[in-house]
What does this fold into?
Amino acid sequence: MSEENATDLHEAVIALRLLGFKYYVIIGILVSVEILLTFIVNPLALCLIAKHRVLRRSPTNIFIASACVADVLYAVSLLLYEATLLETLQDKRGEAIGLSNRMGYAFATASMIGSTLTTMYIAIERSIATYRPLKYRQWVTSKRAVIIIVTTWTYLMTLVPGVSIHHYRSL
It folds into this structure.
């Protein structure tokens, strides 16, 4: 075992002794419940928006669907982090664990940026509705909202994981 890995393991053992194993179990249960709820609620919201035409006509609902996608990506990143933590606690090492950790980081970053941009889009859309109500229907359309969201997520899902994997491979 390398000196760096031994130091990491030693720090984990110290943290486990200070906080106790019950702490890790409680956190693990809470994170698992969060992942489960996120994987249930957000796809249901996406299905409702996709199924009902009335919901698809509103640009705000299209932006809400983007926020649901960001939440699902966050749940995927939590799942990857928890898998990495479990493997590390079992004292396993390897490229798959490092790649899982890096992909968890990439999905968390994409989720955070996507959620922030979606919130910004909603704020802009609501500002136009408030300050230019007569121009709202002309400026803000569902088609434009879909183009903005597709462009944003295409950019995020190609750039962020690509940079993350490239950085991991260069280590």
Summary: DSSP finds seven helices and no strands in the chain. The first helix runs from residue 3 to 19.
